Amino acid sequence: MNFSYEPNKIFAINGGGEIIAEVTFPEVKDNVVNINHTFVDPTLRGQGVASLLLQEAYQTIKNQNKKAIMTCSYAVKWFEQHTECSDILSK
């Protein structure tokens, strides 16, 4: 899947220009973002797209030397399952 990148947002669009997958992580204070929303279109669910989005978000946040908090329930579960990525989590 080809993702597009904007500040604090990673997403994919379909041929009609509609967002079909996205994760958002706005900055909440200096060098801390909140992973607050993950969306995958129902036609893509069960294909691992949300996990790919979180992996990309993790790498982006890490590359920017930022930390993350999470209010998105999917992100909370994803980080619980991917403890090797916990280095970006804000304490």
If strands are numbered along the chain, what order do they take across the biggest sheet? 1-2-3-6
Number of helices: 2
Looking at CATH, the homologous superfamily is Gcn5-related N-acetyltransferase (GNAT)
What is the chain-wise order of helices and strands? EEEEEEHEH
Strand content: 25-35%
CATH architecture: 3-Layer(aba) Sandwich
What is the radius of gyration? 13 Å
Provide the residue-averaged pLDDT.
Answer: 96
- State the share of residues found in helices, binned by percent: 25-40%
Overview of this structure, please?
By secondary structure, the protein is an alpha+beta fold. The chain has a single domain (4-88), classed as Gcn5-related N-acetyltransferase (GNAT) (Aminopeptidase), CATH 3.40.630. It has helices at residues 49-63, 73-81, and strands spanning 4-6, 9-13, 19-24, 27-29, 32-35, 37-40, 67-70. The strands form two sheets. Strands 1-2-3-6 form a four-stranded antiparallel β-sheet. Strand 1 and strand 2 (9-13) form a beta hairpin. The radius of gyration is 13 Å and the shape is globular.
